[in-house]
Amino acid sequence: MVNQHLKSMNYAKKVWLLVCSLFVIIGICIGLHFFFGPEDNMSLSCQADLHGKDVKRDVKVAIDIKIVGEEVALKYRSLESGTDNHSMIMKGKLEKLDLTSMTYKLKLEKGQVVSNLLQHSFSNHMKSVIDSSRLAMANRGPLSLDIHLLEIDEEQHYAIVQFSPDDGLWGCDIKDNKLTF
Length: 181
Hints:
Elements: H1 2-36, E1 41-49, E2 59-68, E3 71-80, E4 83-98, E5 103-115, H2 124-140, E6 143-153, E7 158-164, E8 169-177
Antiparallel strand pairs: 1-2, 1-8, 2-3, 3-4, 4-5, 5-6, 6-7, 7-8
């Protein structure tokens, strides 16, 4: 009877040691994934023709979006004859990624304007974009921007996106996408 009790205690110790080892291994795996696991990344390059009165025919606008983890960089560019005239670079955080609606909710906290020294002044469109962004950030704090992915084809490397509150539709080239939808 004592021998049987010692065997059951020995068996319990082995099971306990196995369970503890399993928890340690799981903890190490979770820690490695947390510190070294892949981040959610997305990089889009979008271009559009600018239409409206007082707009030259060869003027295009472009938006380059780079999301790495929670960090966001957005570069809005004015192009004339293929050359960058002016750009506005805004940085902030990814507030939320809503997978059900495929929407990135951004909070852009700071920005800067970069200008081509050979250009004498900003175009009316670029002035409007800069002024409205500056005013929104000065009065309300971080600028909220939603990027809704209407269609995405990773094999063809393109996406159709809609920006809100602007509601503009853009065709974009996917440069880097590690998100799984």
